[in-house]
């Protein structure tokens, strides 16, 4: 159980595959242009999110390069960077991680991504079956961790061989940057239990998340390890529940049944991810039964692989749903919304106060000289309208 009085650690998402206003449509789309991603990262940093997730895949800008490009334009933001075993040698990834941790002054987090689309993995030179990928990943991270924590590694493994490997420069964070992981298969959970620090689940109904947390925690305890938990969710937060549900409907209003059918067929054929199967089972490709748990909406998963659910509602409603997850053991949230820049502001301005989180300008004491007054937005002019608060 988690103390719900402790504020959630709230991260956001950098859409390195592109962004937009409507799912499954071509209108009002935004390419992952660096200036836009930089604008988003700076806004998220200023708004008080603790970090951002950068995904990996053939359709995404490379995660380490993108994080390195954004780090100099941010101050406190941490970068949860996807690392996929097998796309490069563990010694090379150790050098990347150490360099990025130093460049960002200790702001690197690593998100281990083992699963995915087998045909895409084949393009990266990975031809292993599902469970065997985790055997490979275990050897990969044995070399990676030895290098990052001690500076040297040797292994004569089934998949990975390293002879007298060396790392020239250490990470800022000691003994290494934290390792995050998300995977719902038995093989994935066993791998995480021995290696990871924070387990991430996609946004399933609370009863399913509760069972997953119990399973993961038990597996880690058998290894004598303590781990923490996070959840990956989209957010559609508006001032009222009604407005939020209208926004959810609008998000998929350009989405045709044909597009949904093609996306679901693609996911079923090309992915061996257990987590993806669990996401698809929440809605079964049907757009008429998308509220799969109170305020948990599966509409995004109709055409988006991976995390496909959103919490929908007013700030009070969504905060209540998040506290239910907190009570199960969730300490970290990785959020997103379409488009990500505007929704980052909405979540920070509407939801953060309900969660006991403060935006960065509030932490800095902005406006303290007028602490006894309330600012009123005047819509223009050269002065701020202020009203003396009633005492």
Automatic annotation (TrEMBL):
Which parts of the sequence belong to the Luciferase-like domain? Answer: 9-331
Query: Know the name of this protein?
Result: Alkanesulfonate monooxygenase
Q: What does this protein do?
A: Catalyzes the desulfonation of aliphatic sulfonates.
Taxonomic path: Bacteria, Pseudomonadati, Pseudomonadota, Alphaproteobacteria, Hyphomicrobiales
Q: Which gene encodes it?
A: ssuD
Which family does the record claim for this protein?
Belongs to the SsuD family.
Extract the InterPro entries matched here.
Alkanesulphonate_mOase_FMN-dep, Luciferase-like_dom, Luciferase-like_sf, SsuD_RutA_monooxygenase
Give the keywords, sorted.
Answer: Flavoprotein, FMN, Monooxygenase, Oxidoreductase
Please list the GO biological process terms of this entry.
alkanesulfonate catabolic process
Pfam families per record? Bac_luciferase (PF00296)
Provide the top EC class: oxidoreductase
Q: Which reaction(s) does the protein catalyse, per the Swiss-Prot or TrEMBL entry?
A: an alkanesulfonate + FMNH2 + O2 = an aldehyde + FMN + sulfite + H2O + 2 H(+)
**Source species, domain of life:** Bacteria
SUPFAM superfamilies to which the protein is assigned, alphabetical = Bacterial luciferase-like
**Which molecular-function annotations from GO does this UniProt entry contain?**
alkanesulfonate monooxygenase activity
The EC number of this protein is 1.14.14.5
Instruction: Give the source species.
Output: Aliirhizobium smilacinae
